[in-house]
Input
Amino acid sequence: MVDLQDKINQVRAVLASAARDYAPVVFANSLGAEDMVLTDLIGKYQPDIEMFSLDTGRLPQETYDLMQQVRERYPVPLRVLFPDAGQIEEYVARHGVNGFYGSVELRKLCCHIRKVEPLRRALSGKRAWITGMRRDQAPSRESLQLSMLDRENGLQKFNPLLDWSNAEVWEYLRQYDVPYNQLHDRFYPSIGCAPCTRAITPGEDIRSGRWWWEDPQSKECGLHVSKAVPGKPA
Output
């Protein structure tokens, strides 16, 4: 059985390898529990990896509080990107401020404007990006690989916490006194935009509180739905 320190060492090795072989590398920091593990490890051991976060304009106050804590605690600057105001205004004019509840298509369009387009700007000029995704988070993530060629964005994608359990994530946060979103203490294991996130009940999977009105297989925002294949680019 692999203990936590072994897993930490494995993540550090992945981060070091990515930074060495694919510079410039950037970490897409959603400020969730998993991403706070990576924030801490990058801040301590791999500060040459850049960090960014997407402010959709609909985040909970608790997320903004954590964003400020990250800025004050870690040496790696957290770049914050915003959606295009004109596209947001057009969406609201056509579909309403909460139009995303109307259909999966409208929800994904909202996510595209608020997340996918800013992500593309954040990844511009980079050779690799890092995420905190884990296989056991949701059915849509069961096929994740440690290293994947993200063809849609044209760079390599690393998921260093791929095989970590939720318990191991929280063991790390508590052992190293890492700040985290206070909504986690109110049964919000996965946190996105405020109107698209709810608390969960015992027995539900950890992403069941995201877009809870949709089928579990469609519960992605578009950031991680791409034509990605395992392995390194040729």
